[in-house]
Amino acid sequence: MDQGLAALLGASVGVVGAATTSVLTGWHARQQSRDQARIDHARWRREIRRDVCTATLVPITEAREVARQASRALVREDAGADVEPLLARLDELIHAIRASCARLYLEGPKDVAVAANAVLSALQIVDNNLVTWRLARRSAPESLVEYIERHTLKSAELSHSITRFADEASKALDAAP
């Protein structure tokens, strides 16, 4: 083989090798970029979900404490003045939780939103029981034991639904993106 042909063949192999290396490097760089974008998006979604779950759990926890304070005030003889502001605060918190539940349905996952909605329903039942209990104190004080028993049962259901919500939120945040 003469030197010219060998040089031409060597140059051709070098060009093909360089072009192939360039194409493969570009493809690999694009793939890495897509993978990184997917990871960044999943992290961003997780952060949003964490913020929404926290923004829901904070008023839920406060509402449970306000409901406890209201029930303690209703047990006391001088409950009239203490209960009204507590029930008003509980109503405000229920509205805030309702708004958070709507945002949870948007951000997902659905299991977390369903669990939050169960908390909202349980909290509304506790609130209704407290309002009815307050009204019964004035009209039929002899039936207060029924309200205390009902409130104890409904508070336990509320606590269970809060635990379920926290577990679902934790599972969703721990899940691989």
Q: How would you describe this structure to a colleague?
A:
The structure is a single chain. By secondary structure, this protein is mostly helical. Helix content is 92%, strand content 0%. It contains four helices and no strands. The protein has helices at 3-75, 79-107, 110-139, 144-174. Helix 1 runs parallel beside helix 3 and helix 1 (3-75) runs antiparallel to helix 4. The longest helix has 73 residues, at 3-75. The two termini are 59 Å apart. The mean pLDDT is 85.
Keywords:
177 residues, mainly alpha, 4 helices, rod-shaped
Q: How would you sum up the global shape?
A: rod-shaped
Whole-number mean pLDDT: 85
- Number of contiguous helices: 4
Helical content (DSSP H or I, runs of 4+)? over 70%
End-to-end CA span: 59 Å
Strand content: under 5%
pLDDT < 50 stretches: none
> Secondary-structure element sequence?
HHHH
Number of beta-strand segments: 0
- Structural class based on helices, strands and sheet pairing: mainly alpha
What would you report as the Rg, rounded to the nearest angstrom?
A: 31 Å
Main sheet overview = none
List the helices and strands and how they pair.
Layout: H1 3-75, H2 79-107, H3 110-139, H4 144-174
Short synopsis of the structure:
The protein is mostly helical and 177 residues long. Helices cover 92% and strands 0% of the residues.
